[in-house]
Write a structure and sequence with these properties.
Blueprint (H helix, E strand, L loop, with lengths): L6 E5 L3 H19 L12 E5 L9 H20 L4 E4 L8 H6 L5 E2 L2 H11 L4 E5 L2 H4 L15 E3 L3 H14 L4 H12 L5 E4 L15 E3 L1 H15 L8
Parallel strand pairs: 1-2, 1-3, 3-4, 5-6, 5-7, 7-8
Helix pairs in contact: 1-8, 4-8, 6-7
C-alpha cells in the first residue's frame, strides 16, 4: 500500500493560525477515515515551520523584500521534507508567482485558489472579503484581487480591520472587546457570504451571527489532507 504524502505548513503570521490549520487537517483526516480511523497511525505526517519574521507581512508594502527573504528560506528548508506544502497566511500568497518560479520538488497548495474554487462551485455571486488592509484594498499586494473577475466583492473599512486583526494577535481571539468589534463590522456588511480571508479571523466566534462564513483555512485543510491521502495533483499557484 502506497504511503501517504507528507504535508508541510509554513506559519508564523501568526503562529496560532498554523495551529488552527493543523487541527483542521487532523479533523478532516478523521472525517475521511470515519469508523475505519485507527488513531495515531492514520494521522498525516506534518512538518511545521513557524517563522516569526513572517509577521512583518502585516506591513507588506514596506517589508516586501525582507518578508520574501524569510519565506524563501523556509520554503527551501521544507521542500526536502514534504510532498505538499501550504502557507497559513492569506497575504503571504502575494508571493505565489515567486514560489512557482522556484520550481520546488514539493507541490504548493494555495489557500487563495482553493477558496476561489469553493466559491465558484457554490454559485455564489456576492461576497464580503474580510482581511488586513492590503488584502481588502484589492490592489497589487492582494492575492484575492482576482475575485473581482467572478464576484461582486464588498469590503469593510481598512482601519477597523487593521485594528481588529492586530488586536487578535496581541489579545487573543476570545477577547470580548474584539468580539464586539467584529460583530459591529459585520453589522455594516450587506453581503450574506463572508470570506474570513485572514487566518486570525476564523479563530473568532461566529455563533449567532446571521451570515454564511467561509473559512479558507478549513477549505485548505480539507484539500491538502486529500492530497496527502490520495496523492492527488492539486498543486495550485497564482
Amino acid at each position: 500500500m502506497e504511503s501517504k504524502g507528507k504535508i508541510g505548513i509554513i506559519t508564523g503570521a501568526g503562529p496560532e493560525a498554523g495551529i488552527d490549520l493543523w487541527q483542521k487537517i487532523l479533523s478532516h483526516t478523521k472525517k475521511y477515515y470515519n469508523e475505519a480511523y485507527k488513531g495515531d497511525i492514520d494521522t498525516p505526517y506534518v512538518v511545521v515551520y513557524s517563522v516569526p519574521e513572517l509577521g512583518k507581512v502585516m506591513s507588506i508594502e514596506t517589508n516586501t523584500d525582507e518578508v520574501w527573504s524569510h519565506l524563501k528560506a523556509a520554503l527551501l528548508k521544507i521542500d526536502s521534507e514534504v510532498d505538499y506544502f501550504c502557507i497559513a497566511c492569506n497575504v503571504l500568497h502575494h508571493y505565489s508567482l515567486q514560489i512557482q518560479e522556484m520550481n520546488l520538488k514539493s507541490k504548493f497548495v494555495s489557500i487563495v485558489n482553493v477558496t476561489r474554487d469553493y466559491l465558484l462551485e457554490s454559485n455564489t455571486k456576492e461576497i464580503a472579503l474580510l482581511s488586513i488592509p492590503k488584502v481588502i484594498e484589492l490592489g497589487k499586494f492582494s492575492p484575492y484581487k482576482y475575485l473581482q473577475d467572478d464576484f461582486s466583492v464588498e469590503t469593510p473599512g481598512s482601519e477597523e480591520m487593521d485594528t481588529l486583526i492586530r488586536g487578535i494577535k496581541i489579545k487573543g481571539s476570545e477577547n470580548k472587546e474584539l468580539l464586539n468589534d467584529f460583530r459591529l463590522i459585520l453589522d455594516k456588511i450587506e453581503a450574506k457570504v463572508v470570506i474570513l480571508a485572514c487566518t486570525e479571523l476564523p479563530l473568532l466566534s461566529t455563533e449567532s451571527i446571521n451570515k454564511v462564513f467561509v473559512d479558507p483555512t478549513d477549505i485548505l485543510a480539507k484539500v491538502i489532507c486529500m492530497c496527502a491521502i490520495n496523492h492527488s495533483q492539486y498543486a495550485i499557484v497564482e
